[in-house]
Amino acid sequence: MELVVRAVRILSLLMLISVYAVAQQQSAKSPTTLSGCLLSLNGVFSLTTSSGIRYVLKGDHDTLLSYNGKQVQVTGSMKATKKTESKPPTFNVTSVKKIADFCQ
């Protein structure tokens, strides 16, 4: 009897851990939103936030180019890359919304 109770407890714990792991994966895939100044230099798009953090943007070239020099809000996901001080993080853009006609 004690062995059955122990087995049930272990299975319950494993199920709880599985549910937690699935929830973590789903939250990691949820879209992220960033706001800042979108600029293009030699075909490379970047977004600089008001706190000075710079991101390299990847997405539809024509869409990103139409927002060049504007204050925008971008939605998408971070690209998994090795983080280095000399290379800014890459953000995969799925949508762009204009906040202002000029960067502030």
Description:
33% of the residues lie in helices and 38% in strands. By secondary structure, it is α+β, with helices and mostly antiparallel strands. It has two domains: 1-30; 32-100, OB fold (Dihydrolipoamide Acetyltransferase, E2P), CATH 2.40.50.140. A hairpin with a 2-residue loop joins strand 1 and strand 2 (44-48).
Radius of gyration: 21 Å
The CATH topology label of the largest domain is OB fold (Dihydrolipoamide Acetyltransferase, E2P)
What's the N-to-C terminus distance? Answer: 70 Å
Please tell me what the overall shape is: elongated
Low-confidence stretches: none
Which structural class best describes the helix and strand composition? alpha+beta
Query: Can you tell me the number of structural domains?
Result: 2
Compute the number of helices. 2
The biggest beta sheet reads: 5 strands, mixed, barrel
What sequence of helices (H) and strands (E) makes up the elements?
HEEEHEE
SS strand fraction: 35-45%
Mean pLDDT: 85
Q: Indicate the CATH class of the largest domain.
A: Mainly Beta
Relevant CATH superfamily of the largest domain: Nucleic acid-binding proteins
**Largest sheet, spatial ordering of strands:** 1-2-3-5-4
Helical content stands at: 25-40%
Number of strands: 5
